[in-house]
Amino acid sequence: MSELEFRKAIRDALDEEIERDPAVVFFGEDVAAAGGVFMTTPGLHESHGQDRVFDTPISELAMAGAAFGAAVTGLRPVIEIMFGDFMALPMDSLVNQSAKFWYVSKEQASVPLVVRSAVGAGGRFGAMHSQIHGTWFQGIPGLKIVAPSNPADAKGLLKSAIRDDNPVIFLEHKRLYSMTGPEPTEETVPLGKAAVVREGGDVTIVSALRGVRDSLEAAERLAGDGIDAEVVDIRSLRPLDHETVLE
């Protein structure tokens, strides 16, 4: 079976969705000409043109406001906030506008936008470039939060997020970008559905993002001590698949 790199999974999902749906646009800092600071989006600008893939000024607040406006007027924007640490800047547009619009419009208008960000520590990026912001938004009704741990899920979950009619925050752990794994067997992965990635009967370890790999390694070490550990990859922080976790 051929292997897929995590960063290429992200790129392929964007490429295919921009090609599939003329309403999808993608923009952010250095995502077009430079191909992304982590080289996740090379070639998209050349393939799809300036109207569909373009660079923006360094203003996370402006990006989020533009994405909200685009989403409520018929487009399906995907934006990249380069480092998740800076998600405090666009919080007003996301929390007070995007997340509320479905409710205040009496369920007449949706906000189909996706916010991608690189997150996580371990890459020597410093204190202000290493946080994971998913829990900052967990208590906000109307927002979905997705956290893939492998290339196949990254591609399938991103495609589902782009097609979803709700605002979705999409977390990409920077220490996973160079990870390789099997190609996806399905085009999309449903949001809010966890996966049991290792069976076990003694203890359950629940994780997401890079933590899933660490949990699988821990489970192997536990097996050496005769402890049979199950590992659950929740894949989405919101909606959370309570049934799989509790079972």
Annotation, overall tally of beta strands: 12
Continuous helix count: 8
Q: State mean pLDDT (0 to 100 scale).
A: 96
**Judging from the principal axes of the Cα atoms, what is the shape?**
globular
Major sheet: arrangement of strands? 3-2-4-5-7-6-12
Main sheet specs: 7 strands, mixed
Helix content: 25-40%
Over the alpha carbons, how many angstroms does the gyration radius reach? 18 Å
**What is the SS-derived class?**
alpha/beta
Model regions low in confidence, pLDDT < 50 over at least 5 residues: none
Q: How large is the share of residues in beta strands? A: 15-25%
Structure description:
Helix content is 32%, strand content 22%. By secondary structure, it is an alpha/beta fold. The strands form three sheets. A seven-stranded mixed beta sheet has the order 3-2-4-5-7-6-12, with helices on both faces. Strands 9-11-10 form a three-stranded mixed beta sheet, with helices on one face. Strands 1-8 form a two-stranded antiparallel sheet. The mean pLDDT is 96.
